[in-house]
Amino acid sequence: MRRPIACWPRWWHQVAKHRRPPRTHQVRGTLLLGSGATSLAVGLTAVFSPSLSVASDDQAVTPTIVTASLPTVEAPIVEQAREEPEPQAPAVPPPPPESGEGRRVVFDQGDQRVWLIEADGTVTATYLVSGSRFDNLDPGSYAVRARYRHATSFDNSGTMEYFVEFTTGWSEPIGFHSIPVDNAGNLEQSVDELGRPLSAGCIRQKPEDAAFLWDWAPLGTPVVVTA
User: What's the topology of domain 104-226?
Assistant: First the structure.
């Protein structure tokens, strides 16, 4: 069976021929549009692209150095450690004004203190002692008249060292010596108790002070006792 073929009048073909745009026009329009787009793209590129200048070989390129100012940072203040004042030795009390002159040993009963004084008035040593708890030593001037490296108490209750005798009490010698030690080997008083009248007549001293006075005061050394 034959396929039907549409038949059109001749005049329709003529009209269609005039209405259909030629192919060359379509291609040309496309080319023109493409050319216009290219021109537009080139124009936009020229407008929005930054201009670049290229230095020639003869021109030196100077680098631009950008400096930035850093913020000022203050160094922390370090407080120096305060120097603590060195502890000062306690002031040496002067001897009593009525204690005489020259090189001498001074014993003040009121302060329970001894001074060893040089001929020029310099105090070589001063320290607390324990004198008699009885009123058996009169104020006045004496002199060292005997020395005993080891001695025994009058009632044989103990011993003492570095005995320096300068007078006699009611019946027994009176002098400077170390704190007595009883027969059991105990001190009759503590070192901390020096400065209080606790003896039976003599002047008690620390062992090192008693040894120092023993070496410092030979026979004949003046001894002044004040109230």
Answer: L,D-transpeptidase catalytic domain-like (2.40.440)
